[in-house]
Amino acid sequence: MHILIVDDDQDNRTILTTRLQRRGFKISTAKTGIEGLMLALQLKPDLILMDMSMPELHGWGATAQLKASPQTRSIPVIAITAYNLAGDRQRCLAVGCDAYVEKPIDFAYLLSTIQLVAERHKLAFEIKLGG
User: Fold this and answer.
1) Fewest CB atoms less than 10 Å from the CB: which of 32, 81, 92, 94?
2) From CA 22, how far away is CA 103, in angstroms rounded?
3) How far is CA 121 from the centre of its chain?
4) 3 state SS of 22
């Protein structure tokens, strides 16, 4: 499974990339919402992990644009965010995110969320144990 990670924080991108690659995922990364949109169109990843708080184009706007485009609307998006106030989960889902994972990221929860979203979208993959 090919996952696009869109996050402006280099440490977050590196940690997620390393841990997900160990589990057998192919990973691409973008550091802005605009770059994420371009890569989503170009690469057609199976799933996107979208940080909601980024400069230039935040995750809400990027997700809304992805879901408005016929070329990318079917790509599932999981919101990765430190926003965890009442209503933030609903706001993420309202713009088209398929799921919501709070920072700091519980990696086991992220993997189970990826699995649930993948099953809903009938995406085939295998998670390697360990890592």
Assistant:
1) 94
2) 20
3) 14
4) helix
